[in-house]
Write a structure and sequence with these properties.
- This protein has about 800 residues and is an alpha+beta fold.
- The protein has 13 helices and 55 strands.
- A hairpin with a 5-residue loop joins strand 41 and strand 42.
């Protein structure tokens, strides 16, 4: 297992201690008299056990370990090297204790066993090795390779903390959030330290966010590990030693949650019971967004907005990057470029275009700048260990930085958005919040943070700084917008940040490699509990050609967050920038996004309410097939639409693997068998898309922006199946929190057919009543001649077949069951 001292030196068991000391002294470049050698200390044999409710404390005479039963499927482990635990506080975890059916501890000759109905945690007496076993199969899911251990941190105090688990020969790993490279993490090493990674490359690490959660999969069963430690942390998945996987951190506490599956879907859902799901976004946030660094002056912004409307290309939001500000001072306007921003925002809104603005954390040191004056007078800015203010250069020049880990500062910062909200700004984009500082990269280690009263240096607060910034933004907007849902974006964050904002993959590059990377990154973020994710369509830096941009638009249509963005030193790249045929193809796919809006919105509800990931890689759909552990192009959006982006230049077809079941080609309605590969046509005007047999896909008419048209009826696309399939359709007001009081409509459709009939059943939950009254049906793939349709025991005679042979008819939206017969 790889381990490191503070300077990043690798430390091996057989290295000479004196050599390490000499190197450390040389690094410090200081006349230090004596440095204690770095000695790893391991847990030894268990000598004492104490039980307190759902917590079990084990000691080897010096160190203590707490094993806490969180739920039937989640157990938390904590290590206190000398018996004293840190305060039990987490920015990531909403609530520790959940519902537990039964639990208890039994002592055996060689071990202690703590069991729930589902899992057992074994603590071996002789050497303190911990393992987790699935009760039903008695399979060992995860077990220590060596006892948990630690090292004294001579320079800062505290400990480096380590855990090493066995890595089985057929075990593979997924998750860890914001990482580039292949979806499967096996054989790789990672570091978590939020970093401004401009134009990052394949396998570059670290990137912008820290999500210390992964899923392990072996013997067709899955489990998860969430290492809730905000310090710089490391993960090794069999890179240094193929028989070991390990995780460790430069400080804090060795605290991790074992999360049982046995399915990957279960692991992710249970992780989100700890860290939360994304709140329902305003529906317009799921539309297409256009951004650039930067659109200015006002005339340019209007030109872009009107360019969408005149070309009938749907778009819901336009973004203002940092150049809208006065000298890059946050919460100000450059009156030369934007003389009357409130009027401009209103005029944009009149054509259905929302305005989103950027806000960075760096506040210019300027006594004539009201934000700086307020922060200075109230002591809201970060200080260094010797009480100097933390200062660094970013876009405005010399800046100071709010301590967003201080709840008073968060409340103040949230209130600063009042003028922007009053002007009509609809969303806020928090950037540069790793935090990024020119030259040094980020804050020095000795910067002090409040950490909600639990205090800490920047070593502890760095990875949560961006999360707490977007938290203050979200909470402030929620208060100021008076029950309207905020839309917020953050570049940096930590586990749990999904409760406050969406993300994008950062400053990517206009290359085919980055198109592939973005596809994988969004899937990885989704199975890491951060579902509302997208890429800079077309690449932030570099110059895409029409083919690459169009393929990116196609992939972006099935990204939860769909936004094009580019740097100011590149050519403009709106959907029409490359001429025909690309303009028409881009319009076609953006229109498809809007037609599928009720499905997309329903999938988001399934995430928010039930914890399902929005994007689901093939390994999540069929984890029992080892080949799927290495597939990373295909994914489903929700569980009904299979997406396979075209990722190779010049491709006109590609191989697609379809999971178990039957799937309809979205474009041709050809029915294909699952559990096999298919060679699928993919000319530039198309992208392989498939719909699961038995699905009901709701569809709205094409709109230029969300809410443009009154909906008179909803199209239901029903795909015949000879086995039962359930689909969901969620509707509500689209922009309020009334859904929290059950003011919503959740409809469940059940479809099942045979050789002579098809049954469609509907049940409804919730208190919301949509304005429309009718469903219009298109039933695809019926294998028999339709002669009768009975809706709630009344026969319908008004039905037709369209030119493609699909059954078409209408019904009241409140039907209970529809029976379609050939007899």
């Amino acid at each position: 297992m790889e381990e490191r001292n503070e300077q990043g030196k690798e430390i091996k068991d057989n290295e000479n201690i004196q050599e390490i000391v000499e190197e450390t002294i040389q690094h410090l470049n200081n006349p230090v008299t004596v440095l204690k050698p770095i000695v790893k200390k391991y847990l030894s044999s268990v000598t004492k056990v104490v039980t307190e409710g759902n917590k079990f404390f084990f000691s080897d005479g010096d160190a203590r370990v707490e094993v806490r039963v969180v739920s039937d499927e989640i157990i938390r482990v904590r290590l206190a090297p000398h018996g004293v635990f840190l305060d039990d506080f987490s920015y990531a975890v909403k609530t520790v204790d959940q519902k537990v059916t039964t639990f208890g501890m039994v002592e055996f000759e060689d071990r202690y066993s703590i069991s729930t109905n589902t899992i057992t945690c074994n603590i071996r007496k002789s050497d303190f090795l911990i393992s987790f076993v699935e009760n039903s199969s008695q399979m060992v899911m995860s077990e220590d390779e060596s006892p948990m251990h630690w090292e004294e941190n001579v320079e800062f105090g505290g400990y480096y903390v380590y855990a090493t688990k066995k890595c089985l020969p057929q075990e593979n790993f997924f998750g860890l959030g914001d990482k580039s490279g292949n979806l499967n993490l096996r054989g790789r090493h990672f570091q978590n330290w939020n970093t401004d990674a401009y134009s990052f490359g394949w396998d570059q690490d670290p990137l912008y966010r820290t999500i210390p959660f992964y899923s392990g999969l072996h013997d067709q069963a899955a489990y998860g590990i969430f290492f809730d430690n905000t310090f710089r942390s490391y993960f090794d998945f069999g890179k240094e030693d193929v028989s070991k996987t390990s995780f460790w951190a430069d400080g804090g506490e060795l605290q991790y949650y074992y999360i049982h599956g046995p399915h990957l879907m279960d692991v992710v859902k249970r992780y989100q019971t700890l860290t939360g799901t994304h709140p329902m976004p305003p529906k317009w946030a799921l539309g297409y967004h256009q951004c650039r660094w930067s659109y200015y002056p006002e005339s340019k912004v209007k030109e872009i907005a009107e360019g969408f409307r005149s070309r009938d290309i749907p778009c819901d939001a336009i973004y203002l990057d940092i150049d809208y500000m006065d000298g890059y001072r946050c919460f100000t306007w450059n009156k030369k470029y934007f003389p009357d921003p409130k009027r401009m925002i209103k005029e944009l809104l009149n054509i259905g275009m929302k305005t989103v603005v950027m806000i960075d954390p760096g506040i210019k040191v300027d006594d004539n700048y009201w934000v700086f004056k307020e922060g200075k007078e109230n002591n809201y800015f970060c200080r260094r260990s010797d009480d100097y203010f933390m200062e660094g250069h970013v876009w405005p020049g010399r800046c100071q930085f709010p301590d967003f880990t201080n709840p008073t500062v968060r409340e103040w910062w949230g209130g600063l958005y009042k003028e922007l909200v009053d002007m009509g700004v609809a969303g806020v984009w928090n950037d540069m919040n790793e935090p990024a500082v020119f030259g040094s990269g980020t804050f020095p280690n000795d910067v002090r943070h409040n950490f909600d009263g639990y205090r800490g240096s920047h070593r502890k607060a760095h990875n949560v700084y961006g999360m707490q910034m977007v938290r203050s933004t979200y909470d402030g907007l929620k208060k100021l917008m008076r029950n309207k849902r905020p839309f917020t974006i953050t570049r940096a964050g930590y586990s749990g940040m999904q409760r406050y904002g969406c993300v994008w993959t950062g400053d990517n590059v206009a290359t085919w490699e980055h198109l592939k990377m973005g596809n994988i990154q969004c899937q990885r973020m989704s199975v890491s509990g951060v579902p509302f994710c997208g890429t800079d369509i077309g690449g932030f830096s570099g110059e895409p050609d029409g083919e690459l941009f169009t393929r990116w638009i196609q992939m972006g249509t099935f990204s939860p967050f769909m936004r094009a963005h580019s740097a100011g030193d590149t050519s403009e790249r709106e959907p029409w920038s490359f001429g025909e045929p690309f303009t028409s193809i881009n319009r076609k796919f953006i229109e498809l996004r809007y037609k599928l809006m009720p499905y997309i919105y329903s999938v988001f509800w399934e995430h928010h309410r039930y914890g399902f990931p929005i994007l689901r890689p093939l390994v999540m759909l069929e984890q029992d097939k080892i080949t799927n552990h290495y597939r990373q192009d295909e994914f489903t959006f929700g569980d009904k639409i299979m997406v396979c982006p075209v990722l190779e230049q010049g491709a006109i077809s590609r191989i697609v693997y379809l999971p178990k079941g039957k799937w309809y080609n979205f474009w041709t309605n050809e029915l294909l068998e699952g559990e096999k590969e298919h060679d699928v046509a993919a000319p530039i005007e198309s992208m392989p898309l498939f719909v699961k047999a038995g699905s009901v896909i709701p569809e709205y008419p094409v709109m230029q922006y969300v809410g443009e048209k009154h909906i008179d009826e909803v199209m239901l696309n029903v795909y015949y199946s000879d086995y039962e399939v359930n689909s969901f359709f969620f509707e509500d007001h689209g922009d309020t929190f009334a859904y929290e009081q059950d003011i919503y409509s959740e409809k469940k459709f059940s479809v099942k057919g045979d050789a002579v009939s098809l049954l469609i059943e509907q049940t409804t939950d919730g208190l919301y009543t949509p304005n429309y009254e009718l469903y219009s049906y298109q039933v695809i793939g019926i294998p028999f001649q339709v002669k009768r349709i009975i809706i709630d025991d009344r026969e319908l005679t008004d039905f037709t077949l369209d030119e493609s042979g699909h059954l078409c008819f209408k019904s009241n939206k409140n039907f209970g069951d529809i029976r379609i017969f050939t007899i």
